[in-house]
From TrEMBL:
Gene this protein is translated from: mutY
Signal sequence segment: none
Gene Ontology terms for molecular function: 4 iron, 4 sulfur cluster binding; 8-oxo-7,8-dihydroguanine DNA N-glycosylase activity; adenine/guanine mispair binding; metal ion binding; oxidized purine DNA binding; purine-specific mismatch base pair DNA N-glycosylase activity
Identification of the protein by name: Adenine DNA glycosylase
Classification via Pfam families: HHH, HhH-GPD, NUDIX_4
Function, as annotated: Adenine glycosylase active on G-A mispairs. MutY also corrects error-prone DNA synthesis past GO lesions which are due to the oxidatively damaged form of guanine: 7,8-dihydro-8-oxoguanine (8-oxo-dGTP).
Lineage of source species: Bacteria, Bacillati, Bacillota, Clostridia, Eubacteriales
UniProt cross-references to SUPFAM superfamilies, sorted A to Z: DNA-glycosylase, Nudix
EC category: hydrolase
Biological process (GO), any one: base-excision repair
Amino acid sequence: MVMYSTEHFYDGLQALEREDSPLDRRERLKAMEKPLLFWYAARARSLPWRDKPLPYRVWISEIMLQQTRVEAVKPYFERFMEAFPTIRALAEAEDDYLMKLWEGLGYYNRARNLKKAARILTDTYGGCLPASFEELIRLPGIGSYTAGAIASIAFNIPTPAVDGNVLRVISRVLGDREDIRKASVKGRMEMELKEIMPKDKASQYNQGLIEIGALVCIPGGEPKCGECPLYSVCLTGRNGWWKEIPYKSPQKKRRIEERTVFIIEYQDKVAIHKRPPSGLLAALYELPNVEGRPLAGEVPFVLGIKKGQVESVTELPASRHVFSHVEWHMTGYRVVLRPPEDKNARTVFEGKAEPGCDSFGENVGEGLLGWLFVTREELAGTYPLPNAFNPYTKLIG
Ligand code: ADE
């Protein structure tokens, strides 16, 4: 049996809704304010960006928290702040170092946009974030949610911050079955919240909604209605509609790409490759890989090296990685290269491979160009390798 303890905890704070005169949308939203602020004051988690909500910290945390859980973000946030303590420092960040610090968080465009925005802020705003929703939203990587979050949390400006958490909470409170994937649904919610949110407590109000979405009105499971300060005004809580609301239309199918990944070992080094400057995982490093499923015997040809240069080819396990619009279905091979017979031969495997550099004789295939042979330590410490390759990087000896 569910015990609705909120009735005592929030005594006197609740909107008393009469059956013969239900609240309209606006009244229902307005009625959230007192219990929400009361609950947030009592229950808010202590979080590094929350306890010291300086604009730069709020910005970085909000960007990291997109698509990443709070607990996973914490160590990244602390490291990032140590590495780039100011917006100016971020503007001058070295790209590979920035990406290395971001490694594991995924969605690397977030980090690229942070640096682009930091440059604009340094050039035009004296290295500070502007206290204005309209100016914040013009910066790279900042949409209406993030602009609203920074404006409200860091500057206490009464602008809503509607992310997936807030969409879920508000749709449920209102019993709204509209598709939350629609921009119009989010737009309407932003307008409605802007009208009714308290003018002097924007920070607590928005964080309260986000916090309820994270801790009580949780995604992907039964909400903890017994602990919810909004229970008394929530149509979904009262009617048990949580499985149906929010409604989210099915996502478009992702394209599936079959890829074969190579761990190419030469003495104590492995080959990596820098990806092109635009497109998926732009300018990050990767283990060499090709589209399709070559057979073991075809591997030297596919890599553009002579059979005689290959000591062994062994199969690696299959794995998958899901990006937003594409899924990689991967298999792999470990390829161990043989040292040249002529001990004095200069080999492409010694460092950066360059066009025209002779290796084991005349055959420098296309595949070798652009490979970089690095030690395990260099791989771990210097080169940003996306999570997609984790199942294979962990197999590197
Ligand atoms: N998720 C998104 N923004 C957040 C914030 N400011 N605090 C906690 N969780 C969040």
